[in-house]
Amino acid sequence: MAKKKRYKNGSNNPKKDIMEKKIPFNASVRRKVVLEFKNVCNDLGLGSHSPLTEELLLEFINNVRQSQRENK
């Protein structure tokens, strides 16, 4: 049996990003958030897979979760 190709993100799906899994939205919104975030990071020269970028994304997610709790 042939081995499945593994991508840099650790999955069998090239479009699925590890950072995507950490965002508490439905799939279509999650994908848009990650793409927009990566575009902004690339525009700022941070790169899309640096530890700083992932830390910024996690901070953003925590802020979104906190604002969702406050709005309930």
Q: What is the beta-strand fraction?
A: under 5%
The largest β sheet comes out as: none
Query: Helical residue percent?
Result: 40-55%
Shape: globular
Describe the structure.
The chain is globular and about 40 Å long. The protein has a domain at 24-71. It has two helices and no strands. The longest helix has 21 residues, at 51-71. The protein is mainly alpha-helical and 72 residues long. Helices cover 54% and strands 0% of the residues. The mean pLDDT is 70.
Short description:
The N and C termini lie far apart (51 Å). The chain is 54% helix and 0% strand. With 72 residues, it is mainly α.
Keyword list:
about 70 residues, mainly alpha, 2 helices
Task: Outline the fold blueprint.
Elements: H1 27-44, H2 51-71
